[in-house]
């Protein structure tokens, strides 16, 4: 669908761009440069939309905003009555300055590391920018991390200060403090210590912050983000101010409809994904950079999040596929309880057809939605699609989705329901997205083109290699002098397996370390089957197995909400999940789901047997990382008996 807009340079930038403009002012997207080997696309590259920054840092952003648009609301936060109150650019800059001066008053020196362990909150973003303004390096820590993990990150990073959300978190670290002699400061957000920092800094001259900001440049270390540690101890990714600016500047320009609303509504988002993860952090920085109103939602409980969305009413969201699957499955469950399941299914089919027709028109392979399809979509909009949009606050028109593949069908459904989903792919090492769906030319079921300024290469073994301004400097290693380069040749090996299609769109097929080789020598990637089954309303997680085994099997866990609805609709007694694992009716439903998933793969790659586990995979049990990735080795260890049983052991 054509999109017309005009662009203006961001701070530190010139007007150079790889977007061409037609006479009506609409952009013509520059397609990737493609390189082939033996007839296959092996490399795709997109030039940057904006030139790399040559000076300055993230620490400058609040002050530049205050100078350019002091009264513009750049953030919102809950007031004492629980209502959303806007924070102007001038107010935010003043708060950043005050807290930065407090950190200086506490004796923190340029380059010192300060750790932040809290849920997503206004204070998190304030501390982040204040630390940068004081010349410090921030280290995010998941609040759900174990004491051992927290101790490791604090020791490895050499953090001299830690800000926790609650007194309980600080108290839990008490026994570990003797092992952390470098940790000199412990602040508790809930105890008002952020305000206390601002008070302590009052005697410090403003010029001291100006001097420290002036010492920073694009190559200065900004943060050390630790990986989730699916295969061992977390590793610290050393990201510079220039890494973040290369990432967000190109993302803002490419996703112009998201960050620069074309209607009378100001662009805004409610961030609920963890700021400890680079995905959420990158979008928070992008919002401050683009002066998009940013709110924070600390609770992921359905009732809390739905209430926050209804009150804040964002225009776009940052999400992972699991959330969009839950919204879809919840809407269908509600329709089924009301006896409207057939109507919902028809509406879903219409939405998918509509989304696919729009995609075909954008790619030049079809005429777009027909008159009858437009009429059908208009009929179902107030009955189904508007309810979906209302569940997300009522004004959401765009979702930036990452973490794992969403799937073509669900992406098409949301597009048809009036919500464009821009899928992306990236890692902590790439400061977030390395590829993203281009707004003017979506391709459902892919993770898009290289983000402008990025190159993607497929190695001989299928591994995805990345290069670009957002790719990190290296891994943090205090025992080897700080930062150790991870890609001396300029290409970072991601550990993911994928392919590029003929137009440069990237498709992720699995993890290199998770490729299964059966006893018969068949190589298969478990991710497509796992992602498809995970989208089923009754399934929470799925782990596909078969390495050095005669055939493929799977461990399946049950989704609590989906099972509660299934029991209600099928007249089953409310019993705990462990009593349902052998229920014949449930197994029949799951078997049909497995049969459908098997259509995605060849016979040797198909799931022959599966086991329903009586418990879900959780972070507490060590089966999931804080970013909800499965720890394969831990699961295989804890459920070895169930796995052996599927192979007759």
Automatic annotation (TrEMBL):
Signal peptide: none annotated. Residues 64-476 form the AMP-dependent synthetase/ligase domain. One of its GO terms (cellular component) is membrane. GO terms for molecular function: long-chain fatty acid-CoA ligase activity. InterPro entries: AMP-binding_CS, AMP-dep_synth/lig_dom, ANL_N_sf. Residues 1-25 are annotated as: Disordered. Keywords: Fatty acid metabolism, Ligase, Lipid metabolism. Pfam families: AMP-binding, AMP-binding_C_3. Residues 1-18 have a biased composition (Polar residues). Belongs to the ATP-dependent AMP-binding enzyme family. This is Acyl-CoA synthetase.
């Amino acid at each position: 669908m054509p999109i017309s807009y005009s662009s203006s340079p961001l701070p530190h930038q010139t007007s150079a761009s790889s977007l061409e403009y037609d006479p009506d002012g609409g952009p013509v997207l520059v397609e990737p440069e493609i390189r082939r080997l033996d007839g296959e696309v092996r490399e795709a590259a997109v030039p940057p939309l904006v030139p790399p920054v040559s000076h300055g840092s993230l620490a400058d952003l609040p002050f530049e905003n205050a100078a350019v648009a002091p009264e513009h609301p750049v953030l919102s936060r809950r007031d004492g009555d629980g209502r959303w109150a806007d924070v102007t650019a001038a107010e935010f800059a003043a708060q950043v300055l005050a807290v930065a001066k407090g950190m200086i008053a506490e004796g923190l020196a340029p380059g010192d590391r300060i750790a932040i362990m809290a849920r997503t909150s206004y204070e998190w973003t304030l501390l982040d920018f204040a630390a940068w303004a004081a010349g410090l390096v921030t280290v995010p820590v998941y609040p759900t991390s174990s004491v051992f993990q927290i101790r490791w990150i604090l020791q490895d990073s050499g953090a001299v200060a830690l800000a926790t959300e609650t007194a309980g978190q600080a108290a839990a670290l008490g026994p570990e403090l003797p092992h952390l002699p470098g940790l000199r400061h412990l602040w508790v957000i809930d105890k008002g210590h952020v305000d206390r920092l601002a008070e302590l800094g009052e005697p410090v001259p403003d010029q001291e912050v100006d001097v420290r900001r002036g010492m920073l440049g694009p190559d200065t270390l900004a943060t050390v983000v630790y990986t989730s540690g699916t295969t061992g101890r977390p590793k610290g990714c050393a990201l510079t101010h220039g890494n973040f600016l290369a990432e967000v500047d190109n993302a803002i320009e490419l996703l112009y409809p998201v960050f620069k609303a074309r209607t009378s509504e100001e662009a805004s988002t409610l961030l609920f994904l963890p700021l400890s993860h680079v995905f959420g952090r990158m979008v928070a920085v992008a919002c401050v950079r683009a002066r998009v109103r940013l709110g924070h939602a600390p609770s992921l409980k359905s009732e809390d999040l739905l209430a926050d969305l209804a009150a804040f009413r964002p225009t776009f969201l940052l999400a992972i596929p699991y959330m969009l699957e839950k919204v879809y499955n919840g809407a269908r469950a509600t329709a089924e309880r009301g006896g409207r399941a057939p109507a919902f299914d028809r509406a879903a089919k219409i939405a998918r057809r509509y989304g696919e027709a729009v995609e075909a028109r954008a790619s030049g392979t079809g005429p777009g939605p027909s008159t009858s399809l437009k009429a059908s979509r208009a009929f179902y909009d107030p009955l189904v699609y508007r309810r979906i949009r209302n569940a997300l606050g009522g004004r959401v028109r765009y979702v930036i989705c990452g973490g794992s593949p969403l799937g073509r069908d669900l992406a098409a459904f949301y597009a048809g329901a009036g919500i464009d989903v821009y899928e992306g792919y990236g890692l902590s090492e790439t400061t977030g997205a390395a590829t993203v769906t281009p707004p003017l030319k979506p391709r459902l079921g892919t993770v898009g083109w290289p983000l402008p300024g990025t190159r993607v290469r497929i190695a001989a073994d299928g591994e995805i290699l990345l290069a670009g301004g957002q790719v990190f400097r290296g891994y943090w290693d205090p025992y080897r002098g700080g930062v150790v380069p991870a890609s001396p040749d300029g290409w970072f090996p991601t550990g993911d397996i994928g392919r590029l299609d003929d137009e440069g769109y990237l498709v992720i097929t699995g993890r290199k370390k998770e490729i299964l080789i059966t006893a018969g020598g068949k190589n298969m990637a478990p991710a497509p089957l796992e992602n498809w089954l995970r989208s089923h309303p009754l399934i929470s997680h799925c782990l596909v197995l078969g390495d050095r085994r005669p055939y493929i099997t799977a461990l399946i866990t049950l989704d609590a909400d989906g099972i509660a609805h299934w029991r209600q609709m099928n007249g089953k007694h409310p019993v705990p999940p462990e009593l349902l694992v052998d229920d014949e009716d449930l197994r029949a439903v799951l078997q049909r789901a497995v049969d459908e998933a098997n259509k995605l793969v060849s016979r040797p790659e198909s799931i022959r047997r599966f086991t329903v586990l009586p418990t879900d995979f959780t972070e507490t049990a060590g089966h999931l990382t804080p970013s909800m990735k499965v720890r394969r080795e831990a699961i295989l260890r804890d459920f070895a008996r169930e796995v052996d049983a599927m192979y007759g052991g």
